[in-house]
Design brief:
Distance between the termini: 15 Å
Oligomer: single chain
CATH superfamily: Gcn5-related N-acetyltransferase (GNAT)
Order of helices and strands: EEHHEEEHEHEE
């Protein structure tokens, strides 16, 4: 994918956002509700807190938790940052995979963006980058959404996913990225 601009160690600058690997120290702040000056007012969301707690649990159990990188996009979660009117990058959400690829090389994408940053293509920008890196590593990417979450369905469509006709056993809509031409 060429050289990626870096603004902070590990940062990847995209068109509409910056992805930053979520490290254990930052996850501890998110989980404990210790606000950082570079957070949007409505960050973290409930999903961000859950992911931060899972990362901390894994780290305390001795599980290798990252850092995530374009070469290993599923090694840990990513914070999603956007520039505010003052050009300061602020955390507005998270994105990443639910784990490494399974035996079929499938990996599930997840993301969540604070309300203040929605509707600007941020989630789709992050999803496209993460999927591209996973696909370069040979993974097949899918995502499940609640059938009433039309915003998430728009994100997935914009990121190149197509929906399955049938719902999953849990009543979710499964979305898949078509295999890339080799």
């Amino acid at each position: 994918m060429g050289e990626l601009p870096v603004t902070h160690p590990g940062d990847v600058v995209l068109t509409r956002c910056t992805l930053r690997p979520l490290d254990v120290a930052r996850a501890a702040d998110v989980a404990a509700g210790r606000r950082a000056p570079d957070w949007a007012p409505d960050y973290p969301t409930e999903g961000d807190v859950t992911i931060a707690r899972l990362l901390l649990e894994a780290a305390s159990a001795g599980v290798e938790t990252g850092p995530a990188s374009p070469d290993r996009p599923w090694a840990g979660p990513w914070q999603v940052l956007v520039a505010g009117p003052d050009a300061v990058q602020r955390a507005v959400g998270g994105a990443g995979f639910h784990g490494p690829p399974d035996a079929d090389a499938a990996v599930e994408l997840g993301y969540g963006i604070a309300a203040s940053a929605r509707g600007r293509g941020v989630a789709a920008d992050a999803a496209r980058a993460l999927c591209g890196w996973a696909e370069q590593a040979g993974a097949v990417v899918f995502a499940d959404t609640d059938v009433t979450n039309l915003d998430s369905e728009r994100v997935l469509a914009a990121a190149g996913f197509t929906p399955d006709a049938e719902l999953t056993a849990k009543g979710m809509r499964r979305w898949r990225r078509p295999p890339r031409a080799q």
